[in-house]
Amino acid sequence: MEFLAEILEILMVVSFGASWPINARKAFKARTAKGTSPLFLSLILFGYVCGIASKFINIGFNIGSTKWYVVFFYILNLVVVSVNLGIYFRNRALDAKNAENK
Fold it and tell me: Is residue 48 part of a domain?
């Protein structure tokens, strides 16, 4: 049952993670921060950090454990959501520049 729980956790993280690159591409092309919440993205980042921390607590620092592979997906999602947050700040700067030019 523990193996099934790990597989389900990976599927959950991968499912969430599949949407972030799509969101990043859409936000990058939109060139506006409208409709994007930095608080929401920050809460997602916090959640992924908590997920990674839980693995350290549950698995310990035994890097040789086969259970560490799920951490890769948490870290990957953390990176992609961070990119989304960076795009938000880029788009916010573009919005300010566009407002000045009007």
Answer: yes
